[in-house]
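== Folding task for one protein ==

=== Format: two labelled lines per protein ===

==== Paired sequence and structure tokens ====
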Amino acid sequence: MKKIRVYELARELDIESKVLVDFLSELGAEIKNHMSTIEDDIAEMVREHFASESSNAAAEDKVKEPPKARKEEKPKQKPEKRQAAEENRRAGKAGQRRKKPMRSGGKKQQKNGRPREKRAQPAPVRKRDLELRDTVVVKDLAQKLGVSASDCIKRLMKLGVMASVTQSIDFETAALVCSEYGVEARRHRDLTETVYEERPEDEEALEMRPPVVTIMGHVDHGKTTLLDGIRRTKVTETEAGGITQHIGAYQIEYNGKKVTFLDTPGHEAFTAMRSRGAQVTDIAILVVAADDGVMPQTVEAINHAKAAEVPIIVAVNKIDRESANPDRVKQELTEYNLVTEEWGGDTIFVPVSALRFEGIDELLEMILLTAEMEDLKANPNRPARGTIVEAELDKGRGPVATVLVSTGTLKIGDTFVVGTVSGRVRAMIDDKGRSVKEARPSQPVEVLGMTAVPTAGDVLVVVPDDQTARQVASMMQDKQRDSQQKTSRVSLDDLFAKIKEGEMKDLNVVLKGDVQGSVEAVRASLEKLSTDEVRVQVIHQGVGAVSETDVNLAAASNAIIVGFNVRPEPNARRAAEREGVDIRLYRIIYNVLDDIKAAMSGLLEPDYVEEVLGRAEVRQTFRVPNAGTVAGCYVLDGKITRQAQVRVLRDNVVIHEGPIASLKRFKDDAREVQQNYECGIGLERFNDVKEGDIIEAYTMKEVQRTL
């Protein structure tokens, strides 16, 4: 597109260049001086603007002109002659108007042969609302509005936006332009958004539904025994033969009311479902052994349940043991804001013995009471929505998934889409092993008829037809590919921008350290960094390596992970890359605080990032004269290079960092050793290497500054 310099346009308009520069700058144009260039269509708008100003000024001058001067300009005529001349002029003008269409020689006639009358064009009838995407080209917006591109650009200039015909503007700006024309702009929503949208329910259509309960707690505290106890005492009373198969969830009936239990491996699956946006649990049962008290996994379970914002009922198990001390459990849980009702709190504690089936009735009563307070309702008379609890590929039946219906009623023959998978319900089997024709809210069923195995936590939605299901599944596959390339998780690098945009109110942190004392110190220091704009909140802390569970929690809670003197497990590292979770690892507490303070103030400018090259396991150690201890290693993954920096990990805790002194393959020096090969590694100024240690090689890679 042709461009023109500011000084040339100013000379054309007969105004000073400085005046034009100031005018364009006020409108938001990136104009530095009189030598800057502007698009031709913008220049045309400026010409029209100053032309209208000059014409207005001329009109004002004409109005201000003295009456005598105007009289003198008119030729002196007698009143009779002036009247006759005026009548002739009017008659001539009327004749011209009548003759004008005929002078065209028929070129401007309509198809029916009648001459086209020249009259003012009516204003285009515009829609009262318009659907626009996130960005729209100015030319396209003008067409949608039924106005000229130049008129659209004028409106943009009034709003302080300089944009040419071919430039794109964002939705918010386009919406303002639309409002200038009395048109309401709506953001375009693709088919996936329409299908997965949770529509508001009619209050009159809602009915009470059973609560969905997840049992969590520390390993060996009796979760499985409690589940078995509830199943055995409450299911076999009505069902001969008991449970015939295991489908990951089951439903019991107590006092005429149903309760659904999710039989998951614990908080790992619970959080995995949350990280995909599936909030399936209504109540969390925290199992704590009366003879053992609060343990690390107990704390994890508490943090996961709190992050999900679900009510917690504490089941104090193993009260039949001699060493049981329920009061100790109550005391320890007060540190996590779980205070029993006896002590003025609002957390329900129920003493149980899963082994002897004691306290199960009371626990179920408390579950029903809590559910009543939560007022759990759903509309069964609509197309079903549900969540995948677990899924597998069965050799005889193909892809099979356990679905927990959340709203509506799922029926045989329903067409559905679930994540990137589509299908039609061929058969449904309940938790008793019976074939059923429909499943109502909070009912778990095994569903057959999927094209592939879906992912746990994915939402199943019934759609009108097969074509829609396939189309949505295909679009979800595309979105999944895009999301893998760019993630929207919070990271320290973009924290300041998110704070300024108002997206960040809480900076959630998962904190892991080598010893409890360090973790407590880092947590206290981090929480003191909170400001009026953003609150730093440690949602989980623990001792040991960064695990996959930590990554799942961070993904579900949009948190960053801070590791102090620890490293992530290989599975955790892969999960973090997949989920886009930011893991920050430190050895000095001041570096932790400095980084987060810098990020919160927008001053974080990392120059280098760590790139892990490979990991090797120490299989044997050798004492070499004049060289110290040499580690005989097997490269587990990646490669070990001679120039790399390494760290020695013992139980995933860093015990040494430094350069490699020597790298050998058999007796020969080696520049690098690849995965699945053996090598000898000598470390500078460190001889305390032991069998079972992991040597992790890394390099610091320079990156471009982001700010």
Notes: The mean pLDDT is 80.
